Amino acid sequence: QVQLVESGGGAVQPGGSLGLSCAASGRTFSSGTMGWFRQAPGKVREFVAVFRWTGGGSHYADSVKGRFTISRDRAKNTVLLQMNSLKPEDTAVYYCAAIDSRLILNRVWDAENYPYWGQGTQVTVSS
Predict the structure, then answer these.
(1) d(Cα 24, Cα 62) in Å, to the nearest integer?
(2) Side-chain half-sphere CA neighbours of 46 within 13 A
């Protein structure tokens, strides 16, 4: 019933840019939380960025602050992630995640709090 559809992954050289999109269907998240996680081979899943639709706003991992921007479109139930100044260490599978409710700030980093996930999209940054 609930589906998250991702697009925009690919390969880019260091310093380049990519834009990711996550569109939700089957459930409205306009009062909830949508965000992005990433996971590289052999590493734990890492919080990247999140947007809390009502009374929250955007929050970022320290590793991507100033380079990545998360934005939203309420009408389309969609969250975007614009990634600029990409580095090789950004290489990972990027996952979209969502929950119906507004998570408190201390809980947004924990992947276990998100019941809905996309399939993941590969981002590769190399020279």
Answers:
(1) 26
(2) 18
Tokens of 126: 């190399």
Tokens of 13: 């050289």
- Position 53 scores a pLDDT of 79
Record the tokens describing residue 47, joined without a space.
């919080």
User: 73: buried, middle or exposed (CB in 10 Å: 19+, 13-18, 0-12)?
Assistant: exposed
Average pLDDT per block of 10 residues along the chain, 127 residues long: 94 98 90 93 95 85 97 88 98 96 88 96 97
At position 11, the amino acid (one-letter code) is A
Cα dist from 110 to 5, 10, 23, 28, 57, whole Å: 21, 26, 21, 21, 17
